[in-house]
User: Which sequence fits this backbone?
């Protein structure tokens, strides 16, 4: 907490959790998809569902998907802007088990057909948590460059990833490992102090046993 | 340089013989490792964003719920009649506070200060002051540093979130922060500044957070007007030499205790207070149906 958490942020209203946080969920999700969105199905949960219209939550999520930040004055016009870009989007009710009261589930398809499923939670004050990616539980804020690697749960993959980062002089801030079952699908979420260079990410996608690499760049 | 109470800010300022806002700016410089110019310009950007937001008010806009909009324009018209109950300054403060609250509800760009719900209090008090008293911008930015530091202490020792401490934590904190800024601008002593904080906050203790339909509209917008005028009240008393029997830091502590004792339905859940009145419930049923479509 510093004085600009007290006076600030500059944001489009009305609510830091239901508007600014929702923009950020959309923004981070769009970045994670890594290509322009072609289709988005957005499922709302809890208070996002109950009060979303009044708070502009739906417009906020779409604005974020279009790459807008929480202080972008075009947020209220995001539906029109998305339609102009030919993006198909729809809304529904999320069926989460014990989700955070301000949650949204985003089912995204990109221009090349790449898909991504994300659950984002708005924690208050504009801060968010990405709670699930492609069905596997995660836990990160989107405040750091973040590398997400889906791999088979086999020995050696963590070393491959961390040595690549070391080689590229990228320092790891936090690292989390998740898996669905022993020997099944696993996910690494690595928050970094520096941006990961593109060739490093490309290198990972070519490794055996690595199924998908997603990267959140803050640039 | 580090402080955890309003008294510590004051003591350090007096030890170093600098204004309180400087202690606050120095702490930020150290914490974030930035130059004096950098932090001063960041704070100036916040002030200018407030000014922009004030100018961007549009009295023809209504919030998506239809519950908010147009009232700032009404106050403006009334203030122009020459029949205003209050003097020019508090009249303009009220008008600007309502306008900012409405802009927030209408999805316009605002500066959270300390929150989006309470975003009207500090800009109303400051912008009206600059406009009517012709103060220079540097001093306005200094006053905003002072508000920020007071808010920082309140956030650390109590809360600035309605969900944690009720509306006393949002409108109450904003009012205390604004009161301090006003005393500074009027050339009041450090002692007077701390007492304005104490008095402004005391007047807001116990205020529940009970937004109708869970939206930042009713009662939030009008409470911005009340919080802003309360800041003027507290500053006026402090400048006149009136002192709070309870010192500022103890009032902040009281706010925390009251917040903890407050039932959850009065802390931004939309499940208590005004939100569950007959009218509040009717509006809610109406909006929930609209939300599902
Ligand atoms: S009633 Fe609640 S939401 Fe409204 S301004 Fe007060 S604290 Fe914020």
Assistant:
């Amino acid at each position: 907490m510093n004085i600009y958490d007290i006076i600030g942020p500059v944001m489009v209203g009305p609510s830091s959790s239901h508007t600014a946080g929702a923009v950020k969920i959309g923004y981070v999700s769009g970045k994670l998809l890594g290509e322009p969105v072609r289709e988005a199905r957005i499922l709302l949960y809890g208070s996002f569902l109950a009060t979303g219209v009044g708070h502009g939550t739906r417009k906020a999520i779409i604005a974020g998907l279009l790459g807008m930040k929480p202080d972008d004055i075009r947020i209220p016009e995001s539906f029109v802007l998305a339609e102009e870009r030919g993006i198909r989007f729809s809304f529904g009710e999320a069926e989460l088990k014990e989700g955070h009261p301000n949650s949204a589930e985003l089912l995204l398809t990109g221009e090349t057909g790449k898909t991504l499923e994300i659950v984002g939670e708005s924690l208050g004050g504009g801060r968010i948590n990405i709670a699930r990616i492609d069905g596997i539980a995660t836990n990160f804020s989107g405040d750091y460059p973040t590398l997400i690697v889906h791999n088979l749960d086999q020995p050696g993959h963590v070393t491959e990833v961390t040595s690549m980062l070391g080689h590229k002089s990228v320092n790891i801030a936090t690292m989390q490992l998740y898996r669905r079952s022993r020997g099944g699908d696993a996910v690494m979420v690595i928050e970094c102090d520096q941006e990961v260079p593109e060739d490093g990410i490309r290198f990972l996608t070519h490794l055996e046993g690595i199924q998908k690499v997603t990267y959140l760049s803050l640039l | 340089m580090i402080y955890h109470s309003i008294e510590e800010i004051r003591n350090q300022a007096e030890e170093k013989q600098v204004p309180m806002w400087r202690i606050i700016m120095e702490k930020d410089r150290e914490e974030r490792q930035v130059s004096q110019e950098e932090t001063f310009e960041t704070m100036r950007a916040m002030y200018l964003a407030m000014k922009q937001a004030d100018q961007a008010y549009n009295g023809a806009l209504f919030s998506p719920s239809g519950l908010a909009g147009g009232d700032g324009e009404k106050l403006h018209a009334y203030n122009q009649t020459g029949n205003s109950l209050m003097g020019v300054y508090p009249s303009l403060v009220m008008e600007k506070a309502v306008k900012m609250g409405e802009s927030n509800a209408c999805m316009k760009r605002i500066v959270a200060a300390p929150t989006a719900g309470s975003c009207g209090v500090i800009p109303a008090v400051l912008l009206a002051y600059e406009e009517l008293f012709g103060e220079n911008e540097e001093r306005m930015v200094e006053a905003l540093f002072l508000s920020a530091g007071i808010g920082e202490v309140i956030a650390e020792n109590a809360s600035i979130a309605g969900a944690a401490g009720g509306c006393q934590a949002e409108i109450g904190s904003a009012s205390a922060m604004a009161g301090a800024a006003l005393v500074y601008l009027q050339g009041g002593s450090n002692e007077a500044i701390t007492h304005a904080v104490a008095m402004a906050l005391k007047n807001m203790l116990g205020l529940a957070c009970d937004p109708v339909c869970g939206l930042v509209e009713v009662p939030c917008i009008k409470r911005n007007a009340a919080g802003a005028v309360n800041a003027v009240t507290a500053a006026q008393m402090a400048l006149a030499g009136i002192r709070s029997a309870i010192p500022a830091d103890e009032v902040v502590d009281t706010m925390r205790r009251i917040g903890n004792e407050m039932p959850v339905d009065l802390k931004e859940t939309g499940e208590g207070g005004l939100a569950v009145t007959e009218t509040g419930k009717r509006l809610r049923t109406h909006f929930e149906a609209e939300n599902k479509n």
Q: What stands out?
A: Chain B has 13 helices and one strand. Residues B 117-118, 162, 167, 170-171, 209, 211, 216, 219-220, 223, 268 surround iron/sulfur cluster (CB under 6 Å). Residues 58 and 103 of chain B are 7 Å apart (CA to CA).
